[in-house]
Sequence to fold (186 residues):
Amino acid sequence: MKTQLLIITALESELKRDALPRNVEVIYCGIGKINAAIASVKAITQFEPAHIINFGTAGKVNTKLFGLIEIGKVIQRDMLTEPLAPRGKTPFCDHPHEHYSLGGQYCCGTGDSFVTAHDRWLNDKQIDVVDMELFAIAAVAHQFNVPWKSFKYITDDTNEHAGTDWQKKVHHGQELFLDKLHSLLM
Fold:
């Protein structure tokens, strides 16, 4: 079953299925890079989308950001294999170590951990926000040659309160994303 647009998001608490237009498919991949990769492969194979949009929540590293932002680039923040390769790069792998979307200006660092403290490397790499799925989604989209966009709603300040703040705000970005989606579909 082919579709023009496929939305991939981690949890239904971030984006309710019944809030979406009927002609838009949504897949809930679960939390983390492995879940996101498995779900993305299955979804691309099943729906053969022309485009993918990832929507989800993120913690901010760039203190000036708030609300809904569009991601332009994503890298891995937790690939730590030094001295075999610099942080963020998978050793002995010729796949890209960063992926670029169809638009957006902000950089997202994906990793399988919740960021609850300052990490100088994130600032050094000019990472604006952190999440737990986008790099995997973008990597799979790259393998299948499917263009993608990503919108992140900022829920927390990547500090000791990040988990509590995320739980309180996980659903706050839905209306902003639906407005953005509506403008994209017009």
